[in-house]
Specification:
By secondary structure, the protein is α+β, with helices and mostly antiparallel strands. About 35% of the residues lie in helices and about 25% in strands. It contains 4 helices and 4 strands. Strand 2 and strand 3 form a beta hairpin.
Length: about 100
């Protein structure tokens, strides 16, 4: 099981993402959040196939396609975090923190 906590920024929403490898290359995704848009998005990506997430371009990626249908804020970091968690859970990358910091 791979877990991530995402602080989305000015909206104030925190999302707890849990990704777990199932049989074969299937991945289950669960997101706990107070954001209604992210909750709706999470229902569409509750079951994913690892290869379609990790090795598909932006326009055809099922995570970004689902995000396009549910998230109004295109800079929301949750879809990217889901993909990172899938990669880690699948053994395709190491669990290293990612951050964005504004320069003053």
């Amino acid at each position: 099981m791979t877990g991530l906590i995402v602080n989305s920024g000015v909206c104030g929403f925190i999302s707890r993402i849990t990704v777990e490898k199932e049989k074969g290359k299937n991945i289950s995704v669960r997101i706990e959040t107070d954001c209604e848009m992210v909750r709706n998005f999470s229902r569409e990506i509750a079951a994913l196939e690892m290869m379609s997430v990790a090795f598909t371009n932006f326009l055809n990626n099922p995570v970004y396609k689902a995000a396009a249908g549910h998230l109004r804020h295109v800079a929301c970091p949750v879809p990217s975090a889901v993909i990172k968690a899938v990669e880690v859970e699948s053994g395709l990358c190491l669990p290293r923190e990612v951050s964005m910091k504004f320069e003053e």
